[in-house]
Amino acid sequence: MSETKCDKKSPFPESVNVVSKEGDMFAVPGKLAAMSELLQTMMYDKREDEDEDEVQVLPAPNVDSATLAKVFTFLNLCDVNGPMRAIKKPLRSENIGELVDPWAAEFVAGLDKEMLFKLTNAAVYLDIISLINLCCAKIASMFKGKSEEQILTTFEITNTVNQKTCKDGST
Prior knowledge:
Helix content is 49%, strand content 8%.
């Protein structure tokens, strides 16, 4: 009997537990966790140290629970919908829906600014390139076509250096 693609054993554990900064444990399929370069590396390192039947525990001490839940929601969407298409740069629109797959646009549309920035930081820490690209495109689209004043208002920036200060060289 020939071996088919479905018969091959996955190189990743069936499930892993990822622990957030607060100590909350997220049980996720190994194939989802492996979409993070950091978690994938941890899985390979731990596989040599642990019993094969034991569920691996992977720490994510720089990511809070709410953000980690969003990360796994995104990874699950990637698994269900397939890889996110490449985002063309420079961005041609301020409408994220015109720049990315509909499922990805819907995912970031539901994020407030605080969560968007936390998710961006988590994506960088966990080394999830598609999520980094999506979050950065969303942030960039928030800048696109906006005046300086609109950008300052949108991002609630109040402590700015004015033109006179720049010319004087003082701060």
